[in-house]
Amino acid sequence: MKMLYYPENFPRNKEKLLIDLFRYLQTVEIKKVKKLDQEIRKFFSGKKEKEFFPSYWMLHFVYWRHFHLKMSKVPDFIKLSQKHQVRSLSGIIPLSLFTKPQGSCPFHCIYCATEKDAPKSYFSDEPAVMRAVRNKYDPYLQTRNRLIQFFLSGHPIDKVDVIIQGGTFSFYSKEYREWFVSEIYRACNEDIKELIVKGVTIYDLGIKRENKKIWSLEKQIKINESASSRAVGLTVETRPDFIDEKECWFLRKLGVTRVEVGVQTLDNKVLKIIKRGHTILSVVKATKLLRDFGFKTTYHLMPGLPGSSVPKDLSNLKKVFNDERFKPDAIKFYPTQIVQGTELLEWYKKGKFIPLNNTDLNKIVTEFKLKIVPRWVRINRLVRDLTKSDVAVETFASNFRQNITVKCPCIRCREIKNRQSTVAVEFRLTEYSAGKGMEYFIEAVDKNDRLYGFVRLRITSVDILEWLRGQKLRGILMSNLKSYGLIRELHVYGPQIEIGKKGNVQHQGIGTKLMEKAEIIAQENKVNYLAVISGVGVREYYRKMGYELKESYMVKYFLVNALKN
Q1: Between 288 and 495, whose confidence is greater?
Q2: Does residue 420 form part of some domain?
Q3: What distance, in Å, lies between the first and last C-alpha atoms of the chain?
Q4: Which residues contact 561 (CB under 8 A, 6 or more apart)?
Q5: The pTM is what?
Q6: How many helices (H) and strands (E) does the chain have?
Q7: From CA 458, how far away is CA 477, in angstroms rounded?
Q8: Last residue of a domain, one of 235, 250, 274
Q9: Residues 435, 297: contact at Cβ < 8 Å?
């Protein structure tokens, strides 16, 4: 007989005490977190465990294990104790996972850290890496335990955005990557709520890569389409010189929807100085390929590199969004930092490198946000969070982003988050050319330009279905009489709502209206079909709108004579 499941650090010797605490809290009117803390201290004040103060997640566990089935509604104090609400305000739960340190990247860029127990460019004391270490870099355990953590913090976990980090994803063997991703799906397919409530689950730990019948990628993907925790997005990190047609096809096989590319700079001289190992041409080719396959793209950019300057960095940023060969959907700023164990640190000690200071970085970021960034881009990060022990030379404040108060038209600055609007939502269209195709950014905004959702539509002459069938590996460039449409991203903002429930922005039909407008534009361009690069867990959503699964894409045909084989 299997033992009942308990979280690893749950104080089982205090379980009865926590049950009594829960019953006591039910008798008190609690409307604020401060009041909740006071009542918890009051409960323990006369007991021998008076120094014990339980974490909120322990209260959540007690509720689900012992009271959930007996109560008609969730107590107010449980709702109050939800941690880090901001994590689900973008409509998703982010799930950051790490691949193994061994063989994470073959290159030796001068700024990049190398630690034995962490993948290339990461440190073993970073919180996400520490979670991976505790789980021995096992993808199933990382996913399962993180989902449990989110669930016990009060977040809905039925829609997750998986982000695989750790060096260069494309450098690992295909077998390892397929197993790694399959184990992520397997963990998402487990019913976490049932595990917490009943203490048992049908899944077993310790599945080995050799047992392919159990971890079969295709099997786990199919299950995840209607699983309790659906992967609505899957992101990987890689280098531009590792992207080709075969790699794009393989990424689609895994269910990848977004690719983060280590671009760093668009200056070939700087790329050579930092020993990057590729040129701008690799970035151009990779961006074009990724876009034509429908992937969302994020550039990693590093202002302040050796050989650069403030004027060069600003010119570089303008080029990123003015040159149609580039134009990523999102960016992550990684201002150059001198970290432990790097060649760049030795350069600094010898006087060969002068880093950006706080004033220079502030100038770059402020001008970028005020004058350069388009409204169809999301700035995911402005500075990397590192511990003081990892940074060898501190040149700008670790809380730099918090000190930047300048708002810009980027997606992140305009997201509705937990704010509500009583005015009507209108739809706004922005068109721009990129990668020899046309991009249509359709967004739902209110009169204050607050963003409720958007869709990215690409019209191109590349027949992606023919490409993926492999009849011509290079793809088929059709005549001007034929066009093909790709939905590269659909996102609706607001607090995450569980699948099947209604409320707030995510279930006001905004997503459906955005898709309808994209379909109208697609038909105006006389496309044969519209293909959606859908996350595995969102396929059912598109099926309800008349789309069908073709070659890992959700597809709707518009012309009677369009091929359906």
Answers
A1: 288
A2: no
A3: 50
A4: none
A5: 0.90
A6: 21, 16
A7: 15
A8: 235
A9: no
